[in-house]
């Protein structure tokens, strides 16, 4: 027998929160755990632009025959331009390839397997804290990892100089995972000046960025949020970008993402892309079609694209409103609680600067579910539950 030597692996911490929330029977329960956008009613709805594009596909699609390992060519082209703009130098120079992937996760995995082929002893630097799956994926691909300091959870402070200090010890050829915008889990992003400085530093030190962008449109806007990607792709010879349409198209379960590869020359890019496609072929052969076909249709139809942009604007504005409302209410209810920083952060996530005991009290006594390290999904707040949540947190400070 060979299946009898394993012991059970614990649940992924994010999925565990969802499981606990679902099992809870408290009518006041609030889910600030899983990373999905929720509207003012607390629902994760299908965007109108997506519904229309799906209808269009039902009416017009004539075959479901195989595509190819690179997926939907129109989707790849649209996503590449969404990330880089229409006339980015790497597009004009033929130094970039985008390959459809099953979600941002699939894109990260293809990129990691590709790194293993390029340089088997690649060291990958990962921000502390980060989206935990970065570690899972890098180690599954057999890469070494090392953490760089990024954010002080207890103080609610972005650690830019500590980050630079740690990266100063990286060696030429090391890869740095960077969250393109809306850092998950801290909501703290580099300023444009800091991105410029980091890019110059990485150029001088021959460090390779692996940009992970899963929230494009949730910070300042679709184009604004791609600042780091456009900059690094312009200034650095080699770049990997894993992108996701899960959040900004609300197509979570359809698994729509991509990996974009920038190489130093057009010739090398062709060779490198062939290796990525070989990776794809050996893992899942080719990506699922539906979600990418929907995104391709939305992005190539002017009216639908505009409608989608408005829908992204709405999602972003609602999360920002909830950030401001939370901060305002906390300032009223517990003036010394010090949550002002939450209004300055981006995207769906922030950490609550609470002790481990306070976090457990909120989960166990108040049925407010979030990550045990204090990460909350601000999009889980609504006009209906914000008073319950802020009263409960204030009680911790006022007791
Ligand atoms: C930082 C980050 N990268 C990648 C992903 C993966 O997204 P997807 O669901 O498209 O695989 C997520 C999803 O939560 C994320 O937060």
Short description:
This protein is an alpha/beta fold. 45% of the residues lie in helices and 14% in strands.
What does this structure look like?
Helices cover about 45% and strands about 15% of the residues. The chain has about 400 residues and is of the alpha/beta class. The chain folds into two domains: about 15-45 and about 315-399, Aspartate Aminotransferase, domain 1 (Alpha-Beta Complex), CATH 3.90.1150; about 65-300, Aspartate Aminotransferase, domain 2 (3-Layer(aba) Sandwich), CATH 3.40.640. The chain has a seven-stranded mixed beta sheet, with helices on both faces. The longest helix has about 30 residues, at about 300-335. The chain is globular and about 65 Å long. The model has no long low-confidence stretch (mean pLDDT about 95). The site of pyridoxal-5'-phosphate has 12 residues, from helix 5.
Instruction: Report on the biggest sheet.
Output: 7 strands, mixed
Percent of residues in β-strands: 5-15%
* Total tally of structural domains: 2
Q: Identify the bound ligands.
A: pyridoxal-5'-phosphate
Q: Would you tell me which CATH topology of the largest domain applies?
A: Aspartate Aminotransferase, domain 2
Layout of helices and strands:
Layout: H1 13-23, E1 30-31, H2 48-60, H3 73-84, H4 89-92, E2 96-101, H5 103-118, E3 123-128, H6 133-140, E4 144-149, E5 151-152, E6 157-158, H7 160-167, E7 175-179, H8 192-205, E8 208-213, H9 227-235, E9 239-244, E10 257-262, H10 266-283, H11 290-300, H12 302-333, E11 349-351, H13 356-366, E12 368-369, E13 375-377, H14 386-398
Helix pairs in contact: 2-11, 2-12, 3-11, 5-6, 5-10, 8-9, 11-12, 12-14
This protein binds pyridoxal-5'-phosphate.
């Amino acid at each position: 027998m060979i299946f009898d030597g394993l012991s059970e692996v614990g649940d992924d911490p994010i999925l565990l929160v969802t499981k606990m929330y679902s099992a809870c029977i408290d009518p006041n329960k609030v889910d600030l755990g899983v990373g999905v956008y929720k509207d003012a009613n607390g629902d994760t709805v299908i965007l109108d632009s997506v519904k229309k594009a799906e209808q269009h596909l039902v009416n017009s699609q004539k075959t479901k025959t195989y595509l190819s390992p690179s997926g939907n060519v129109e989707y790849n082209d649209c996503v590449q331009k969404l990330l880089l703009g229409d006339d980015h130098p790497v597009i004009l120079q033929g130094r970039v390839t985008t390959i459809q992937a099953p979600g941002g996760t699939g894109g990260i995995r293809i990129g990691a397997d590709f790194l293993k082929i390029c340089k088997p002893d690649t060291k990958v630097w990962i921000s502390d804290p980060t989206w935990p799956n970065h570690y899972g994926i890098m180690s599954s691909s057999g890469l070494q990892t090392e953490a760089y300091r990024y954010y002080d959870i207890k103080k609610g402070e972005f650690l830019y100089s500590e980050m630079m200090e740690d990266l100063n010890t990286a060696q030429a050829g090391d890869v740095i995972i960077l969250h393109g915008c809306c850092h998950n889990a801290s909501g703290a992003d580099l300023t444009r000046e800091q991105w410029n400085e980091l890019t110059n530093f990485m150029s001088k030190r021959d460090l390779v960025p692996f940009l992970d962008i899963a929230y494009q449109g949730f910070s300042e806007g679709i184009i604004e949020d791609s600042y780091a990607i456009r900059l690094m792709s312009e200034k650095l010879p080699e770049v990997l970008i894993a992108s996701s349409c899960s959040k900004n198209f609300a197509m979570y379960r359809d698994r729509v993402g991509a990996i974009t590869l920038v190489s130093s020359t057009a010739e090398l890019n062709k060779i490198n892309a062939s290796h990525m496609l070989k990776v794809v072929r050996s893992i899942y052969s080719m990506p699922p079609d539906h979600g990418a076909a929907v995104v391709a249709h939305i992005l190539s139809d002017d009216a639908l694209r505009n409608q989608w942009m408005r829908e992204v604007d709405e999602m972003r504005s609602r999360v920002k409103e909830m950030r401001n409302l939370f901060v305002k209410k906390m300032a009223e209810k517990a003036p010394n609680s010090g949550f002002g920083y939450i209004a300055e952060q981006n995207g769906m996530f922030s950490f609550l600067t609470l002790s481990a005991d306070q976090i457990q009290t909120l989960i166990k006594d108040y049925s407010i579910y979030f990550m045990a390290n204090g990460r909350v999904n601000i999009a889980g707040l609504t006009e209906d539950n914000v008073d319950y949540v802020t009263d409960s947190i204030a009680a911790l400070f006022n007791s």
